Amino acid sequence: MMTITEILYNEELTSSEKLVQLKDLVASIRDSYGNSDVELEESELNTTYGFVNFSALAPDSKVEILRNEALRIKHTALECVKHNTAVVLSKKVEELIATNEFFTNISNKLDLGPL
């Protein structure tokens, strides 16, 4: 099974294919973490057109946001380990993914009604 980073940067996959694979991987991470039954509220993003729900973005835009979130999660986890050697890096990463409002609301569908 590929990691989140491998999926996000795989040039052979379309953005929609990446989202499908990420959704499955994040579901297994959330099962392991124990919060798969918790629904996290979707975040809005400030775009040049105003605030937009993450689910309303096109697949390419979602992948780009998720790339940035993955880098932020990596940095946050490494900082936690740096400041507290009792923290297990892989468990911290799991926690940050399982509780991230973007990774937990992945969908490859763009529903804009008749537009």
Descriptive overview:
The longest helix is centred in the middle third of the chain and has 25 residues, at 59-83. The mean pLDDT is 92. Helix 2 (15-33) runs parallel beside helix 3 (59-83) and helix 2 (15-33) crosses helix 4 (89-98). The protein starts with a helix and ends in a 17-residue tail after the last helix. The protein has helices at residues 4-8, 15-33, 59-83, 89-98, and strands at residues 44-47, 50-53. It is 51% helix and 7% strand. The protein is mostly helical and 115 residues long. A hairpin with a 2-residue loop joins strand 1 (44-47) and strand 2 (50-53). The chain contains 4 helices and 2 strands.
The Rg value, from CA coordinates, equals 15 Å
Q: Count of helices? A: 4
SSE topology string: HHEEHH
Give the spatial strand order of the biggest sheet. 1-2
* Percent helix: 40-55%
Average per-residue pLDDT, rounded, comes to 92
Largest sheet, in brief, is: 2 strands, antiparallel
**Share of residues in strands:** 5-15%
Structural class: mainly alpha
Low-pLDDT residue spans: none
The tally of strands reads 2
Key descriptive features of the protein:
single chain, two-stranded antiparallel ribbon, 51% helix
